[in-house]
Design goal:
Putative inner membrane protein, transmembrane helix, 82% helix, membrane, cell membrane, globular, mainly alpha
Length: 445
Amino acid sequence: MKHWFSDGAFRTIIRNTAYLGSSNVVSALLGLVALSCAGKGMTPAMFGVLVVVQSYAKAISDFIKFQTWQLVVQYGTPALSSNNIQKFRDVISLSFGLDIVSGAVAVIGGMALLPFLSHSLGLDDNSFWLAMLYCTLIPSMAASTPTGILRAVDRFDLIAIQQATKPFLRALGSVIAWYWDFGFAGFVIAWYASNLIGGTMYWWFAANELRRRNIHNALRPSLFKAARKLEDAWNFVWTTNFAHSIWAARNSCSTVLVGIVLGPAAAGLFKIAMTFFDATGTPAKLLEKSFYPEIMRMDPRTKKPWLLGLKSAALAGGIGILVALVVMVAGKPLISLVFGHKYLEAYDLIKIMLGAIVVSMMGFPQESLLFMAGKQRIFLIMQTIASASYIVLLIVLSHFFGVVGAAFAYFGGQCLDVLTSLLPTLHAYHRRHLLRFRASGESNP
């Protein structure tokens, strides 16, 4: 371990993860406060409706949006490393243009689809219009250019500030809505405002950072003109978009599908279990956010980025084991304290899903390594296979075994995701000598 920490890149990943981790600990606690107030301030059925409304907007956003932050990291980080500022501007212009287009399509599609799904989602007339209001958040949820900029310029401290501010505002609004008994409408408005302000902060931080570095005229949207200057950019954009849309169908749509199959109350229980699972998986997500930009500065033909991935996976797996043990001990009393005894059934779901924590955390470097190697297409194929299998499992097991079946399906889906990506990652490593170094000006095969 002493030798590992002598590696400057590994120390950078740990440092940036510490920035994000400090804010995410606060975010997780504040998120529990917001959910606790919502759970205590409404009936289980109305709490489930609130969860479904929020999950619906997020699912539409995740399904439609381009992964522009990955575009900025994939092309922009090497450009900055070689001091090619014009190329960095072109990357941001393309990324910004994609955010605008995908945001417009997502909000129109989300609003158009909602009337057909409102009955299945358990929405009455009043909650339907509040759900329509929530859909106007989709463009800000779909934009990820500013996070890509901040990652490329190594300003994870600013990302940490934003990630702590949004849940603070949500928790504050939820406390007010619960204390003054504003009901369902009060919670929707509180969650809406926190998302809107949080999304705006990202853009403000990114614009200030570009200005500080004298990178002007970058936030001017462009599609075809900018893309022509970036070799193989459309291939990367569409492949990562499809891969993430499939991921959204597997994850963000899970709560919505459970709500459709089993009703809003079951969706609320599943959401509580998912919240715990997401919280326990936070270390891996934080490591990935700092891991991806770091390996894009390295030569994929060498062993260094691959060994860095192995070290990071081992660290994440060890953390995952510790977190799973803590959740086993503290999960039940925590749910009882935060949400009340009426939601204790969620602990049974958490126990089923705990096994996937270690597996998913150890597998986090695979996506970044495949993108570094230019193997985004094979990653898309593996995601399609794993996600299609998960959706089938979720629907079938939910139908026959209820919300417990949904938990088993989620466990199986996480394991499939890691295992299907492992084979192409190992194959890319053994053929690494055929790869090219993007920062040298060459493109990946």
